Amino acid sequence: MGSAELEGERATLLAYLRDYRLTMEMKCAGLEPAQLARRSVPPSTMSLLGLVRHMADVERHWFRRVMARADANPLYWSDDTPDADWLGAVADQAVVEDAWRAWREEVAFAEKLVADSPDLGIRGTMRNGSSIALREVLLHMIEEYARHCGHADLLRERIDGRVGQ
Asked: Any alpha helices (H) in the chain, and if so which ranges?
């Protein structure tokens, strides 16, 4: 977090989420497709590129599908191949570009949805029919990024020794 004091719930949640999104980008910066696609440790299929693809789908699910109630299929995940976000993260420049494009589009959609929301109490509808408030989605996204930025730290260290910020 920056040194500026945060005022209010919205500003605080958005600042933390923004910082975690930036951390994810930073952990991937300067790497070639083969490095981004490098798997962690067997039997895991996790890679930095897989994390970008996974987070694109997570952003899409919570903001586009749940909060905006849009009829939008997952980008990489499917019932036929539930781990497609990870398994499809291969060392190909086109795959890397697609992942970043998709992630940035979903983040932009989420940022606009939140900016246009009158308050954080607006509710989205989940697949099981229950509802969830935007503030809870934002908290969940912070948790999701925090967990995966920890994975990204370890993945990046294994690739080239880079640690921390």
From this structure: 9-28, 33-36, 48-59, 84-87, 93-116, 134-160
| Structure letter (DSSP) for residue 5 | P
- Entry pTM: 0.94
pLDDT of residue 3: 53
Cα–Cα dist 2/40, whole Å: 30
pLDDT band at 165 (very low <50, low <70, confident <90, very high): low
Distance, CA of 141 to CA of 139 (rounded, Å)? 5
Question: Domain 9-160 belongs to what architecture?
Answer: Up-down Bundle (1.20)
Mean of pLDDT values over 58-65: 98
Query: Residues near 91 by Cβ (< 8 Å), separated by ≥ 6?
Result: 32, 33, 34, 36, 37
